[in-house]
Design brief:
two-stranded antiparallel sheet; 24% helix; 2 domains; Type Iii Antifreeze Protein Isoform Hplc 12; 12 strands
Amino acid sequence: MGRRALVLLVALVLAGVAAFAVFQFLNGIRTDVERDRQKVTVYRAGALIPEGSQGSQVLQSGLVVQSEENREDLPEGAVASEEQLNAVLSGRLAVGPINSNEIIVDTQWAQLTVDLQPMSELIPSGKQAITISTDAVRGVNGFIRPGDMINLIVTLDIEFNQIPTNSPIFGIPTETTTAETGAAAEEVSETITYTRFVLQGLPVLAVATDVRQEEGDTAPVVNPQVDADGNPITTEVAQEEEIPQTIFTLEVTPEQAERIAFASENGSVWLTLVPADFVEVATQGVTIETLFAGDLVDDIFGN
């Protein structure tokens, strides 16, 4: 074999090796892409799973549904088999709310290790528990947790004739006007809107179903209602509810319970979250006259 033929043979062999290497490389990339695009089994929340829900009850209620997702889109810890689903949920509680259609992952569930403590054992002697509800804005946007302390503000429309004549708070004389209707005169009471802290430093026992924990206690569970087929039941009232309400259970004295009930029935209630070292502060409250800390008429009209 001549020298030229030998060189040509070597070149052909090297070209073949290079072509094979490129083919293997591209084939590996295609395999990786196909594997990432491969549909795998996942499990999703069929409806909102509230914080504190017990995993075994969620399974029995049919709140978890099987689905498929691209492998590359799976979150870390995603449950991918029925055996894993049972292992992750059994004997555990949801550590936070799981939204409808959200993929179930193992970090959403915490081990249930102790029995629940009755709520009555959390209430000190001489105290009582009372529950109020607010929307997210009036309830500090969900940042209040069991064990926190809160202040309660109320806004009321108060009739002038109910304000003591010697009250220094409002700075507005108490008076009524009359309106003539035919031959009869009907007294019309004028009102003033007043906002003030009504109670301060109230301990929070529970928020919705999240009970204040003591020495490792866990939260009670709300079991969603299901029909005969295991599907979650939704009512027209729930569907029409546009603003979700957060429920707060507070530790109070009997006198405080009465004041909270009156404020909730007759006014608009707001909550404020306070630090653990909070000290009660005396306030005079606010009316339209004191809101801007000056003469409102002069401020508006420049008189």
